[in-house]
């Protein structure tokens, strides 16, 4: 296993990872209440522990979906003292990606919408939560919130993830979609 190999080996017994390709993990279902979920891969911008520019998000599964505690820092500054909206979107997109451990299938973001209700401050603790609102075939409708320490929701997000097969990550010539 190289440094680039996804770390999918920290699941509970009975949910061993299954890697269809050397660097592309599948998403075995990890039980509710289990330990930290494994990062998508070591250099993932959202959660990769080996990405010095990343958020190194650590996510746990819970009864409703997944959650994480996170502080944005000076690397993520937008307006002074406030996290850049794109950085917030990155973290929420990645958090949604952890719901795949509750689905057990590969999926990618088709649509992401964010309501920035109040500034997300740097060096301030927040709790991020995400859950599956509905599943319609290969469409996963997802919802998330960011709360401050006073349980005030400062950000909400919705996303549509589309379940894909492994070929999605092996194809180098994706065609753009026009709606
Ligand atoms: C060597 C590399 C190794 C990598 C290893 C990775 C392993 C890890 C694996 C997993 C990662 C998890 C990590 C999480 C990280 C965060 C998540 C991301 O950053 S993901 C990246 C950003 N996203 C994309 O790059 C997708 C780009 N888009 C596409 O490739 C396609 O558009 C795709 C596959 C998503 C869908 O394409 P279609 O052709 O299959 O489907 P269509 O026709 O566009 O839509 C399907 C259905 O959805 C509806 N739909 C589309 N947009 C909608 C909308 N906005 N609202 C409601 N419905 C919508 C449509 O009406 C359609 O519905 P009807 O099937 O007809 O019922």
Automatic annotation (TrEMBL):
InterPro entries assigned to the protein according to its UniProt record, in alphabetical order: HotDog_dom_sf (IPR029069), THEM4/THEM5_acyl-CoA_thioest (IPR052365), Thioestr_dom (IPR006683)
Chain intervals for the UniProt region annotation (Disordered): 1-22
Pfam family, one: 4HBT
Record's compositionally biased regions (Basic and acidic residues): 1-14
Originating species: Rhodococcus oxybenzonivorans
EC class of the enzyme, as a word: hydrolase
Domain Thioesterase: 82-151
Name of this protein: Acyl-coenzyme A thioesterase THEM4
Keywords: Apoptosis, Cell membrane, Cell projection, Cytoplasm, Fatty acid metabolism, Hydrolase, Lipid metabolism, Membrane, Plasmid, Transit peptide
GO BP terms: fatty acid metabolic process
Recorded catalytic activity of this chain's protein: decanoyl-CoA + H2O = decanoate + CoA + H(+); (5Z,8Z,11Z,14Z)-eicosatetraenoyl-CoA + H2O = (5Z,8Z,11Z,14Z)-eicosatetraenoate + CoA + H(+); (9Z)-octadecenoyl-CoA + H2O = (9Z)-octadecenoate + CoA + H(+); tetradecanoyl-CoA + H2O = tetradecanoate + CoA + H(+)
A GO term from the CC aspect: membrane
Keyword Transit peptide: yes
GO molecular function terms attached to this record: hydrolase activity
Entry annotated with the keyword Protein transport: no
Family: Belongs to the THEM4/THEM5 thioesterase family.
Enzyme Commission number(s): 3.1.2.2
Membrane topology: Peripheral membrane protein
Subcellular location: Cell projection, Ruffle membrane; Cytoplasm; Membrane
């Amino acid at each position: 296993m190289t440094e680039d190999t996804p770390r999918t080996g920290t699941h509970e017994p009975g949910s061993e990872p299954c890697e269809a390709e050397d660097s592309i993990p599948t998403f075995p279902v990890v039980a509710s209440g289990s330990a930290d979920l494994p990062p998508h891969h070591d250099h993932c911008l959202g959660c990769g522990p080996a990405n010095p520019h990343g958020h190194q998000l650590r996510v746990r599964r819970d009864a409703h979906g997944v959650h994480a505690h996170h502080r944005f820092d000076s690397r993520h500054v937008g307006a002074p003292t406030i996290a850049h909206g794109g950085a917030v979107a990155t973290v929420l997109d990645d958090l949604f990606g952890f719901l795949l451990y509750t689905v057990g299938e590969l999926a990618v973001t088709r649509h992401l919408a964010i309501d920035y209700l109040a500034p997300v401050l740097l060096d301030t603790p927040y709790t991020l939560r995400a859950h599956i609102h509905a599943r319609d075939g290969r469409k996963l409708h997802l919802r998330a919130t960011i709360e401050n320490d006073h349980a005030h929701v400062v950000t909400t997000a919705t996303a549509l993830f589309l379940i894909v097969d492994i070929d999605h990550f092996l194809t180098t010539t994706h065609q753009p979609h026009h709606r």
